[in-house]
Amino acid sequence: MKCFIELWKAKKTWKELSKEERGNYLAQIGPHMQALTEKGVEFGAWGENDPDTSNRINYDFFGIWMFPKPEMAKEFEQVIEAAGWYNYFEQVNVSGTALTPQEVIGKMLDL
């Protein structure tokens, strides 16, 4: 299972859109996200980055996705890019195979 974590914040271009324009833009992405969930992609969690977080990174929102196959994560990235998401949001991503804490600790020890 591939885990994909995205962090984003609105650019000026997003803030300049009316609420109706924002809603229309997000509505056109919805069917693509629905198609991915029908293929087995899971929403791990979505949320707003808490301002009281220690060592907080300067992004406002996060999304955690779980992809049953690595190529599905690539499909997700292509859908987001084709939809023009990066015109409206500054975003950074983290992804990798989901491991147990013990597996990660072992990799840390091997550095």
Compute the number of structural domains.
Answer: 1
Strand content of the residues, in percent? 25-35%
Terminal CA distance reads 23 Å
* CATH H-level homologous superfamily name: Apc35880, domain 1
How much helicity do the residues have? Answer: 40-55%
In the CATH hierarchy, the architecture is: 2-Layer Sandwich
Order of the strands making up the biggest sheet: 2-3-1-4
Number of helices: 5
Features:
111 residues; globular; Alpha-Beta Plaits
Explain what the structure shows.
With 111 residues, this protein is α+β, with helices and mostly antiparallel strands. The chain has one domain (2-109): Alpha-Beta Plaits (2-Layer Sandwich). Helix content is 45%, strand content 29%. The protein has five helices and four strands. It has helices at 12-15, 19-38, 70-82, 85-88, 101-109; strands at residues 2-10, 42-48, 61-67, 89-97. Strands 2-3-1-4 form a four-stranded antiparallel β-sheet. The model has no long low-confidence stretch (mean pLDDT 94).
